[in-house]
Known about the structure:
The chain is mainly α and 93 residues long.
Amino acid sequence: MENYYSLIKFLGTGFILWFVAGIIICLGIVFIMAENYGRSTASWLIIAILYSPVIAIIGLAALGKTPEKKFEDWKVFERRKKWFLKELEEEDA
């Protein structure tokens, strides 16, 4: 009987650690998404902690990127395009 209780205690501890690790991973996902979408990371982490990381992820996906972030991404894309075209011209020459 003693082995049974130690097994239950071990499995319970494992479940709690697995659950906490899952929450931390989900909070990390919310942080990265908020950063990539140009949203306030602190605000979205608070929303994720108070409500649920899943709700915060869905909310971020629904809102999408801010106009400023879209413009910034477009500028980066244009710079990379110019650099790539310059590299192609140098290879052809």
